TrEMBL record:
One of its GO terms (molecular function) is uracil DNA N-glycosylase activity. GO terms for biological process: base-excision repair, AP site formation. InterPro entries: MUG/TDG, Uracil-DNA_glycosylase-like, Uracil-DNA_glycosylase-like_sf. Keywords: DNA damage, DNA repair, Hydrolase. It comes from Paenibacillus uliginis N3/975. This is G/U mismatch-specific uracil-DNA glycosylase. Residues 8-151 form the Uracil-DNA glycosylase-like domain.
Length: 170
């Protein structure tokens, strides 16, 4: 199974960071490609994107200032299949990406993604007080997986905080 290519650039407004690609994403080579994943609907409903994009459009979001990467590159059925060694290596690789590209905001798509990266035991939704990488604001958002039990309106509301911040900060 192939890794899904990162979409990175300098000057990004937001770098979205997931656990790792789904098997479906690995098959088609695009981020958040599982049809049960709500990522693209959440971005649109929260105001982060002007229209509903599809996984095949993931590279197009660079034009909006949005990039994509994961803490672990290997596609799996679920995050529970990621090994401790993969997290250890992924943490270092992700930190290097953040230090090199310096997006304004690193948006962790799931608390677990953030706690694995930061090595902090807890996180709250939204912006975090002390970033791991200086000068990169960290925002923790709910996972977009269809398995998440949080109501969709609540998830969209948290992403809307990010959208409002970007709109107000210019």
């Amino acid at each position: 199974m192939n890794e899904v290519m990162d979409h990175l650039d300098y000057g990004l407004s937001v770098l979205f960071i997931g656990f790792n690609p789904s098997l479906r994403s690995g098959e088609v080579g695009h981020h958040y490609a599982n049809p049960r994943n709500n990522f693209w609907r959440i971005l649109h409903r929260s105001g982060l994107t002007p229209r509903l994009y599809d996984a095949s459009d993931d590279g197009e979001l660079l034009k909006l200032g949005y990039g994509f990467t994961n803490i672990v590159a290997r596609p799996t059925r679920g995050a529970e299949d990621i090994t401790r060694d993969e997290y250890e290596q992924g943490r270092e690789i992700l930190r290097a990406k953040l230090e090199q590209y310096r997006p304004r905001i690193a948006c962790f798509v799931g608390k677990g993604v953030y706690t694995e990266f930061s090595r902090r035991s807890q996180a709250h939704w939204g912006f975090q007080a002390e970033p791991v990488v200086k000068e990169v604001r960290e925002f923790v958002a709910p996972s977009s997986s269809g398995l998440v039990r949080m109501p969709m309106d609540d998830i969209v509301g948290i992403y809307r905080q990010l959208s409002d911040f970007i709109e107000n900060e210019g």
